[in-house]
Amino acid sequence: MNASFDLRLEPLADRYRAGDITPRRLVAQLREKALRLNDEYHVFIHLLSLEEMEPYLAALEERRPDDLPLYGVPFAVKDSVDLAGVPTTAACPAFAYTPGASATVVRQLIDLGAIPLGKTNLDQFGTGVNGTRSPYGECRNSVHPDYPAGGSSSGSALAVALGLSSFALGTDVGGSGRIPAALNNLVGLKTSKGILSDAGHVPICRSLQCITYFTSTAAEASRLLALTALDKPDPADAYSRANPAWNDGKAFGVIPRTFRFGLPQYPEFMGCAESAAIFARVAARLRALGGEAVEIDFTPFAEASRLLFGGPWLAERYGGSLGAFMEDNPQALLPVIREVLAPAREITGVAVFRALHRLQELKAQCDRLIKDLDCILTPAYPRPATLAELHAEPIRRNLELGFYSSFMNLLDYAAVAVPAGFLQNGLPSGVTLFGQAFSDQRLLSFAHALQGEIRSPRRY
Question: For all residues of the chain together, what is the average pLDDT?
């Protein structure tokens, strides 16, 4: 493939209209590239064969590029989200099943003209935010070989970062759709809970989990959200909810001339001076765009974060079919996953309700802190962890990576990870913008403004 080929949505559409490329030629070239890279990066658990892609390609040959919003757009699917006829493993071979139907959001994207390339690698059962916890191989960073890709949606982020797909579907409970974005110079959109249907997603943490998008730009994430956000709840997903009119695609665009954004009063970087400097530069850019910075007490957010893996939500991961599978197949899980989930069996109903009550108190505090703010800016994580550090202390380093991300779904917030620059060693760095539920398009507007300041074009 031409090294300058651009897979972003608009440039790709222009190539199709000009007749420079066809979907069939494109996916064949991308598949060859994926095969070359997969041994090194472990992006795909299942890369679709040309025969498996044929129904999607044949359907497009009956249409023209302007007939479908996502005509011929290649995308990747995290392997905890169903694609009809292809095994879903959740990175556990013994758990695998072959769904007869695709997840709702996958079906929406295919109906819009997009072409699935394959199922991507992940931290087993979505338990982790680093990308090293998979029997299909650990996912290293797209730029620096000494660092992870981030997780749990590691392969999805790599598919976009390595130029194998225009966008990818990930998922997010406590940072899985944002940390890999920050580590690979991407936008990672964790939508408000429920506005993308979760039907067809392995129920790992049912009350919290969200489908996410990895894209090169905030504008692309905005467009994909506008195309697939629900205008009414999905009957197949009891946790779904309609996206309000004020959060549709028309809400994306120019930011206010003046606005107020929150900053942690005492941001935590765990000794990483470079991360602190990058964060300060992004805050300065928001000020230059017209923002007034307001320092907020981050204590209640941090306490809510600790509830995710230090509280009874571990029991939710263990509940239902996943817990039964673990009981019957304990050796099918990686040792670190068994260690993380082992306390779940001892969690009592009393502990669950105490935590729920405490979470409600924390949400009331956090909502008061942010109610008059347009958005809140935090680091994506305090500091990056090397692969060596994750191997030596897998649980501790994973928790550190999730410091700024684990509270979002517990508190029912929307969030987007935005590229923020690079460390001196070349590793990408990112920040997070978050706000109240249904502020997705507003957050993407701020992300778009920031990208105009700090993003270099992504070309392949």
Answer: 95
In words, the CATH class of domain 9-251 is alpha beta
User: Mapped to the 3 state alphabet, what secondary structure does the chain carry?
Assistant: CCCCCCCCHHHHHHHHHHCCCCHHHHHHHHHHHHHHHHHHHCCEEEECCHHHHHHHHHHHCCCCHHHCCCCCCEEEEECCECECCECECCCCHHHCECCCCCCHHHHHHHHCCCEEEEEECCCHHHCCCCCCCCCCCCCECCCCCCCECCCCCHHHHHHHHCCCCCEEEEEECCCCCCHHHHHCCCEEEECCCCCCCCCCECCCCCCCCEEEEEECCHHHHHHHHHHHCCCCCCCCCCCCCCCCHHHCHHHCCCCCCCEEEEEECCCCCCCCHHHHHHHHHHHHHHHHCCEEEEEECCHHHHHHHHHHHHCCHHHHHHCHHHHHHHHHCHHHCCHHHHHHHHHHHHCCHHHHHHHHHHHHHHHHHHHHHHCCCCEEEEECCCCCCCHHHHHHCHHHHHHHHCCCCCCCCCCCEEEEEEEEEECCCCCEEEEEEEEECCCHHHHHHHHHHHHHHHCCCCCC
Q: Which residues are catalytic?
A: 78, 152, 176
Residue 29: pLDDT above 50?
Answer: yes
Task: Give residue limits of the domains in the chain.
Answer: 9-251, 261-313+350-442
Looking at domain 261-313+350-442, its CATH class is alpha beta
Query: Rounded mean pLDDT of 64-77?
Result: 98
Give pLDDT, residue 454: 60
Fold match between 9-251 and 261-313+350-442? yes
Convert the pLDDT of each residue in 173-215 to its tens digit: 999 999 999 999 999 999 999 999 999 999 999 999 999 999 9
- Percent of the chain at pLDDT > 90 equals 92
Q: Is the pLDDT of residue 288 over 50?
A: yes
